[in-house]
């Protein structure tokens, strides 16, 4: 570095290399570094484990058979590439604005605007699903069966919202314990599953082992295509892995904590997702599972273990609340970063005395409330469309992260920035292959037909909304950028 010729951009290099304007980090002011190592580690785990595994694996196993583990492994690899790319950017410059802040630096305000609103699209629609799911799961218990669903949904939202609004420490604690419950449930299942296989203890008349796979059509009982079509749904099981990148801006010593948390995602995905699906396939034939029930509940019910369904329902409820918790937290930070630059409403940038950007959190919570009414007013297929639109948001977010990573790599080659020691391996090929994978997921959504195809058909409408929104805010963005330069 010492023998490099200074450039015009050099004065910016120590704080935010190659930033086009000094206000790029303005959205990070006022946050408290209250997230500890244990919080970030559990946020990383919790982001990689959710209802996509606990609830969604049953229906996917029924549709594609044991080959589901291949889909989880492939999608998990690309999820790891995404979070590893984000981790490199975080080590370069920690920011609560995360990929929105990096998009602003490497792509300009239009890039930051696009990245931020695609992320909000994902979490605002996911919040609708989470709040409804929490109420539905609560109805499982007799004590709540007579309570109206809308009331249970509002209670769930109020509890999680309150914890988010008090301080980041409360968010971290809540997510820590949510993750503990999910991990404990998976570890317990895997220990039981291994014990059953080793002892050859029959499950509903079936002897656990490879025979449950080989005697029922093998790994691909319905062919390869059903597994490929499942990839689109499996990607969204990993939809929160980028959360630890957002949390970095409120973390003590991110240089030390983040690499460990991100690297651990890879083996956890392999152990919990791939390992669980392989065990499920070995314990019972894939035809026993269904989308109406968690596959883990199916196994415990077949074993005749009393109370197992109730325990698993609690775990699935925890996963829904964890997702809602994460969505409120992350969109609050992302919207603040956008608000400071003028590309989001001004009120979303307001912080309380606890260093919490409550304006953005309340905006996302508002969509959750809207979701309660929406769930009553719209039939099931239309509600499913809302969930599919969330998937478009996460595909867009992952795509923006990889584009930022690619541009960061290019600038490092030009000598304008310096890559940290913690890097995305095999750049730039990793970014290019991941982007091609994300495009292929959209193609698979179209091929799947039904609601998935309708969702892809909505892409021009989403693009038109983004373009229209940009024309509404661009003057404010330009004025904000101009003011920050003086």
List keywords for this structure.
mainly alpha; 70% helix; Amino acid/polyamine transporter I
Question: Could you characterize what this model shows?
Answer:
By secondary structure, the protein is an all-alpha fold. It has one domain: Up-down Bundle (Amino acid/polyamine transporter I), CATH 1.20.1740.10. It is built from 19 helices and no strands.
Biggest β-sheet, characterized?
none
CATH class: Mainly Alpha
The name of the CATH topology is Amino acid/polyamine transporter I
User: What's the helix count?
Assistant: 19
Order of helices and strands: HHHHHHHHHHHHHHHHHHH
Based on CA atoms alone, the radius of gyration comes out at 23 Å
CATH homology superfamily: Amino acid/polyamine transporter I
Name the beta content range: under 5%
Q: Judging by the overall fold, what is the CATH architecture? A: Up-down Bundle
Q: In terms of structural class, how would the helical and strand content be classed?
A: mainly alpha
Total separate domains: 1
Short structural summary:
It is built from 19 helices and no strands. By secondary structure, it is mainly alpha-helical. Helix 16 runs antiparallel to helix 17.
Question: How is the topology of this model organized?
Answer:
Blueprint: H1 37-48, H2 51-54, H3 56-64, H4 68-92, H5 98-107, H6 109-138, H7 149-166, H8 168-199, H9 211-214, H10 224-235, H11 243-247, H12 254-283, H13 295-303, H14 308-341, H15 358-377, H16 380-413, H17 429-448, H18 450-457, H19 459-484
Helix pairs in contact: 1-8, 1-12, 4-10, 4-12, 4-16, 4-17, 5-6, 5-16, 6-7, 6-14, 6-15, 6-16, 7-8, 7-14, 7-15, 8-12, 8-14, 10-17, 13-14, 14-15, 16-17, 16-18, 17-18
């Amino acid at each position: 570095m010492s023998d490099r010729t200074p450039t015009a951009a050099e004065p910016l290099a120590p704080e935010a290399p190659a930033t086009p304007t000094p206000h790029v980090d303005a959205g990070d002011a006022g946050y408290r570094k209250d997230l500890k190592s244990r919080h970030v580690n559990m946020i990383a785990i919790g982001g990689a484990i959710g209802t996509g595994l606990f609830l969604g694996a049953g229906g996917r196993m029924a549709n594609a058979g044991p080959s589901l583990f291949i889909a989880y492994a492939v999608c998990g690899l690309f999820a790891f590439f995404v979070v590893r790319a984000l981790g490199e950017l975080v080590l370069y410059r920690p920011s609560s604005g995360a990929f929105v802040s990096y998009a602003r630096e490497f792509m300009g305000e239009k890039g930051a605007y696009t990245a931020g609103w695609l992320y909000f699209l994902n979490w605002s629609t996911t919040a609708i699903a989470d709040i409804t799911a929490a109420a539905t799961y609560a109805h499982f218990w007799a004590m709540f069966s007579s309570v109206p669903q809308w009331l249970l949904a509002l209670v769930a939202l109020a509890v999680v919202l309150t914890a988010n609004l008090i301080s980041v420490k409360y968010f971290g604690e809540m997510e820590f314990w949510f993750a503990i419950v999910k991990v404990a449930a998976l570890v317990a299942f895997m220990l039981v599953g291994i014990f059953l296989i080793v002892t050859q203890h029959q499950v509903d008349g079936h002897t656990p082992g490879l025979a449950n796979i080989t005697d029922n059509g093998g790994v691909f009982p319905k062919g390869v295509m059903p597994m490929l079509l499942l990839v689109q749904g499996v990607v969204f099981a990993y939809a929160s892995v980028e959360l630890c990148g957002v949390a970095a801006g409120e973390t003590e010593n991110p240089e030390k904590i983040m690499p460990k948390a991100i690297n651990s995602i890879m083996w956890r995905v392999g152990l919990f997702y791939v390992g669980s699906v392989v065990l499920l396939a070995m314990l019972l034939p894939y035809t026993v599972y269904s989308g109406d029930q968690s596959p883990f509940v199916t196994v415990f019910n077949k074993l005749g273990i009393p109370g197992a369904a109730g325990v698993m329902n609690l775990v699935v409820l925890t996963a829904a609340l964890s997702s809602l918790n994460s969505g409120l937290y992350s969109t609050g930070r992302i919207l603040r970063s956008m608000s400071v630059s003028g590309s989001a409403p001004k009120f979303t940038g307001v912080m309380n005395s606890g260093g919490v950007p409550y304006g953005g959190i309340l905006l996302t919570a508002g969509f959750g409330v809207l979701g309660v009414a929406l769930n009553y007013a719209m039939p099931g297929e239309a509600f499913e469309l809302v969930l599919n639109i969330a998937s478009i948001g996460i595909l867009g977010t992952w795509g923006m992260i990889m584009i930022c990573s690619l541009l960061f790599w290019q600038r490092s080659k030009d000598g304008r920035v310096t890559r940290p020691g913690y890097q995305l391996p095999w750049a730039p090929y990793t970014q290019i292959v991941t982007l091609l994978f994300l495009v292929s997921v959209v193609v698979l959504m179209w091929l799947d037909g039904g609601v998935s195809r309708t969702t892809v058909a909505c892409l021009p409408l989403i693009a038109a909304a983004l373009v229209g929104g940009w024309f509404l805010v661009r003057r404010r963005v330009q004025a904000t950028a101009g003011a920050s330069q003086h």
